[in-house]
Design brief:
nucleotide-binding; Nitrilase/N-carbamoyl-D-aminoacid amidohydrolase; binds nicotinic acid adenine dinucleotide; 702 residues; glutaminase activity; alpha/beta; NAD/GMP_synthase; Rossmann fold; EC 6.3.5.1; 24 helices; binds glutamine; binds adenosine-5'-triphosphate; 16-stranded mixed β-sheet
């Protein structure tokens, strides 16, 4: 038996928080040592935080990261444990995204990232250069801080591995796992048995499955141990890092961390038997052939044993991986992001204009889920969560946030801001949901504000008064009258967000929450600078179709795995309506009629536009077969209507409220979906082409 205890972790790092990042990194090494580990891997760029973005252009970021690493090396923490630590480093004045392999107070070698992430949310080549010379390494002269801490002048830098007295260790970094020709293939063939992957990998609904498949298949094909470390929480941007540290051996997962947690440091360990890796590899004859002709990569020798001959801990057995339902992911992912955002900004909680409709109710339910997570963490004695909760709630040292409803009452504020066009039904829904969550709730009539604006308008324009469509008004009059209501709600929300802590005898400010979903953003079905403009939006990256499923799930009792907010069932079943126009016997406003398309259709358009990368013509061609129950002319008309609405409203996405990235069909043009602010909504060339295809389809076949 050649047993080794290995450790990996999830850390809630924060961009540029050098003190906090250092403290959490050190704590994770301490915990790994306490659990008997002789090898520990941490997340990508853990000392600076992954999401520093253009702060990676500053020399300070590199220097402070090196100073933090020097602190770790001087502290004695790396004595007896090989640590794979992520940080940005300069080599010959070139910036690299690096792994520093540290042991017994020395830097054994430095491994720069070979393949940078440069799609979707990622722009790594903007800040780092990739190490181009595969299979090569050279001397690196340590910065003054590191040289002083280690007494070393230099170490190896490049594509290299470490040979200890009993095994071979190397690392690959995040994106490299996702590439077709991953470094782990070459490293495994050249004899590496333990591979660490320090990641800064973001949450997306249903993405964990893909990550786990890749890790499983990496070790299934090559044999070996694969340790995955990730960041956790919100590190200052729109992405949520979803932790879920993993340890895989020969195709099996043997340890899994939590995906959504409020803990800021989570360390997992496994006991592995190196002989199991060798036995697995010996039996794969074809692997042997490929391994024997593999070009070796540079090796640094470390006079150190990872195997603990004295350890009697049993070897870790394969476990069945825990996947959260998509509905749970919608609840707990954005909840973790909100928690980090609110505690790190020093806010005293949230204010949400709650209409009783599906969207704002989803936002409220996510805050409710967050309160439940805080209560669970408090019950488990997490002192850091308790301290943050006390501060946020404005409570003293005796307060324990173990009751989610009581905590919600301190930090969550909602208001139903009704007008004469609002219904009793939605008012009751809003009140009922607030009661279920336990939060502070107001019911306010805002007609006085709307009529004050109209009075002013009449005074300015000689008594002229716009009318709703149902009263004979024009399209513009009708829109303007709706927008006054919607925009007044935004003004009132900021007023309440600013003054509610004062009204309740506390201090500080509330973060105003928004509730536009991804489809409304894409279609532009929102009033610019109304209640869709807020400080934060937890659901801006989620489609209405997914939100409905989430509400249905969240209505279930906690004993059945839901959130226990039963009223959400009825809310999810009500037809979506803006309630901005008068209801008459002949007319009730609904979202889908207003938009000229169903949310289901909109979701299809959104996926084809972003995930399938379709312009108008290719979308039309795809839908001709997908919607073969419709005449080609009908499909053409729907596609044109979508693109027209989308193009006319592009400008709204440029000012959209920051939301947590949740889906690959997201349309946040500030980070993920980079498009022009205005484009020709007539699409003359493209639509002519659609008409031609349509005519050809419809012409009688000879
Ligand atoms: N290319 C461009 N670049 C920059 N800005 C541009 C622009 N084109 C128009 N604009 C500006 O945008 C304004 C038009 O946008 P905006 O004021 O938002 O108004 P608009 O889009 O005309 O109307 C808002 C729509 O959202 C609907 N709505 C409102 C509230 C809630 C909900 C719901 O989800 O239930 C739906 C409402 O029924 C209506 O159809 C123009 O007056 C102009 O100021
Ligand atoms: N009566 C209201 N009281 C409080 N807030 C409201 C009210 N009506 C609308 N809002 C706010 O304005 C936002 C946008 O309004 P909109 O009518 O678009 O809601 P929606 O998209 O139909 O979502 P919901 O399903 O929550 O009503 C809502 O999410 C909500 O935050
Ligand atoms: N930081 C990275 O390299 C992350 C990229 C990777 N494709 C991911 O989504 O997880």
């Amino acid at each position: 038996m050649q047993n080794v205890t290995v450790a990996t972790c999830s850390l809630d790092q924060w961009a540029l928080d050098f003190d906090g990042n250092l403290e959490r990194t050190k704590r994770s090494i301490e915990l790994a040592k306490q659990k008997g580990a002789t090898y520990r891997v941490g997340p990508e760029l853990e000392l600076s935080g992954y999401g520093c973005e253009d702060h990676f252009h500053e020399i300070d970021t590199f220097q402070h990261s090196a100073e933090a690493l020097a602190d770790i090396l001087k502290s004695g923490l790396t004595d007896g444990i090989l640590c794979d630590i992520g940080l940005p480093m300069l080599h010959n004045s070139v910036p690299y995204n690096c792994r520093a392999m540290c042991l017994n107070g020395k830097v054994v070698c430095i491994r720069p990232k070979l393949f940078l992430a440069d799609d979707g949310n990622y722009r790594e080549p903007r800040w780092f250069t990739r190490w181009e010379r595969l299979g090569e390494a050279e001397d690196h002269y340590l910065s003054p801080a590191l040289a002083a801490a280690t007494g070393q002048q230099s170490c190896l830098f490049g594509d290299c591995s470490i040979q200890t007295l009993d095994t071979r260790v190397a690392s690959e970094t995040c994106e490299e796992l996702f590439t077709p020709n991953s470094p782990h293939i070459h490293l495994g063939l050249s004899g590496v048995e333990i591979l660490g992957n320090g990641s800064g990998s973001h949450f997306e609904l249903r993405k964990l499955d893909k990550r786990i498949d890749l890790i499983r298949s990496a070790t299934e094909k090559s044999g070996g141990v694969y340790l995955y470390a990730n960041q956790l929480g919100c590190d200052g941007g729109r992405m949520l890092y979803d932790g879920c540290a993993l340890i895989a051996v020969n195709g099996n997962i043997v340890a899994q961390g939590s995906q959504f947690s409020l803990a800021d440091v989570e360390v997992i360990t496994a006991v592995i038997d190196l002989e199991e890796i060798r036995a697995y590899r010996i039996a794969k004859a074809s692997r042997g052939v490929q391994a024997s002709r593999t070009r070796p990569i540079p090796v640094v020798h470390a006079n150190f044993r990872l195997v603990d001959a004295k350890s009697c801990d049993p070897v870790s057995a394969p476990l069945s991986v825990r996947y959260h339902l998509p509905e749970e992911q919608i609840a707990y992912g954005p909840a973790v992001w909100l928690w980090d955002y609110a505690r790190r900004t020093g806010a005293s909680g949230f204010f949400l204009p709650l209409s009783g409709g599906a969207d704002s109710s989803s936002t409220a339910a996510i805050v409710g889920a967050m309160c439940q997570m805080v209560a669970k963490a408090a019950l488990n004695g997490d002192e850091r969560v308790i301290a943050d909760a006390r501060r946020m709630a404005g409570q003293g040292p005796d307060y324990l946030p173990t009751d989610p409803r009581e905590f919600a009452n301190c930090i969550m504020h909602t208001a139903y801001l009704g007008t004469e066009n609002s219904s009793q039904g939605t008012e009751n829904f809003a009140k009922g949901l607030a009661e279920a969550i336990g939060n502070y709730h107001l019911t306010v009539k805002i007609d006085g504000v709307v009529s004050a604006i109209l009075t002013l308008f009449r005074a300015v324009f000689g008594g002229r008064e716009p009318r709703f469509k149902v009263h004979g008004g024009s399209f513009s009059e009708n829109q303007a009258l709706q927008n006054i209501q919607a925009r007044s709600r935004m003004l009132l929300s900021y007023l309440f967000g600013q003054l509610l802590p004062w009204v309740r005898g506390n201090s500080g400010f509330l973060l105003v929450l928004g509730s536009g979903n991804v489809d409304e953003g894409l279609r532009g079905y929102l009033t610019k600078y109304d209640c869709s403009s807020a400080d934060l939006n937890p659901i801006g990256g989620i489609s209405k179709v997914d939100l409905k499923r989430f509400l249905w799930w969240a209505a279930k009792p906690e004993t059945e795995g839901g959130l226990g907010f039963g009223i959400l069932q009825a809310i999810s079943e009500a037809p979506p309506t803006a309630e901005l126009e008068p209801i008459t016997d002949a007319y009730t406003q609904t979202d889908e009629a207003d938009m000229g398309m169903t949310y289901q259709e909109l979701s299809t358009f959104g996926r084809l536009r972003k995930i399938s990368r379709c312009g108008p013509v290719s979308m039309f061609k795809r839908l001709l077969t997908q919607w073969d129950h419709l005449e080609p002319a009908e499909v053409a008309s729907k596609v044109k209507h979508f693109f027209r609405s989308y193009a006319m409203n592009r400008h709204k996405m440029s000012t959209i409220t920051p939301s947590v990235h949740c889906e690959s069909y997201g349309c946040d043009d500030n980070r993920f979906d980079l498009r022009p602010i205005f484009i020709d909504a007539r699409f003359p060339f493209q639509f002519r082409m659609i008409d031609r295809i349509c005519a050809a389809q419809s012409s009688p076949k000879l």
